[in-house]
Design brief:
Number of helices: 10
Helix content: 55-70%
Distance between the termini: 76 Å
Strand order of the largest sheet: 1-2-3
Radius of gyration: 26 Å
Length: 205
């Protein structure tokens, strides 16, 4: 295994190329320890230590530090570790270990996100947000239905009523033009047309 390139990543890290391919990114201090030089062979034992001990430990420690501040989905944490220059196989192994340790759990994340955000976001907006975070729509929808059935969250019509009450809007007192304007606003917030129409044209008010 020949070191064929060393490219500074920033003032602390250097990207190491082995046999013309990116192998890993190391801190500059590691170069003193392993005596890595361009054009020279890297001993197999040094390569194995870097790939199987040094980088996995750093990836795990980095993950623990990130998870101390907030919860992450599997995709979010993968993207974060990737941006920190860890090799894909090390990222996959780290994610698997964290899942086994219950440090990351997409189901738990989805339940918590919907529970806390459902008071201010429509179902459609919640589904879109969770999809962006790497949660499958069918999984997010199943969790939403479960929480709704358990009365842990309010349905869309309750949210619409709460919004209108907060804005002191009484549907029965609105002109046709005002209803059209408020309908458009509620649709932009992600509420379904049927729910909006039922509240604005219904008899609840």
């Amino acid at each position: 295994m020949t070191v064929t390139g060393l490219i500074p990543k920033n003032n602390k890290k250097i990207t190491v190329f082995i046999d013309e391919k990116i192998a890993f990114v190391l801190y500059k201090g590691d170069f003193n320890k392993y005596h890595i030089s361009e054009g020279e062979e890297i001993p197999e034992e040094d390569y194995d230590e870097i790939m199987h001990r040094i980088l996995p430990k750093r990836a795990l420690d980095r993950s623990y530090k990130l998870l101390l501040s907030r919860d992450y989905t599997e995709r979010q944490l993968k993207e974060k570790l990737f941006s920190d220059d860890y090799p894909e196989n090390i990222i996959d192994d780290t994610i698997q270990l964290l899942k086994e340790q219950k440090y990351i759990d997409d189901r738990r994340y989805t339940e918590n996100y919907i529970f806390w955000q459902s008071k201010k976001k429509s179902r459609r907006r919640l589904m879109a947000d969770l999809k962006q975070k790497g949660i499958k729509e069918e999984d997010a929808s199943a969790v939403y239905e479960m929480l709704l059935e358990q009365n842990d969250i309010d349905d869309e019509e309750v949210l619409i009523r709460n919004f209108l009450d907060k804005k002191k809007i009484v549907p029965g007192e609105l002109s046709y033009e005002e209803k059209e304007k408020i309908t458009a606003m509620l649709l932009r917030k992600g509420f379904s047309f049927d729910a909006v129409k039922h509240i604005l044209n219904g008899r609840e008010y």
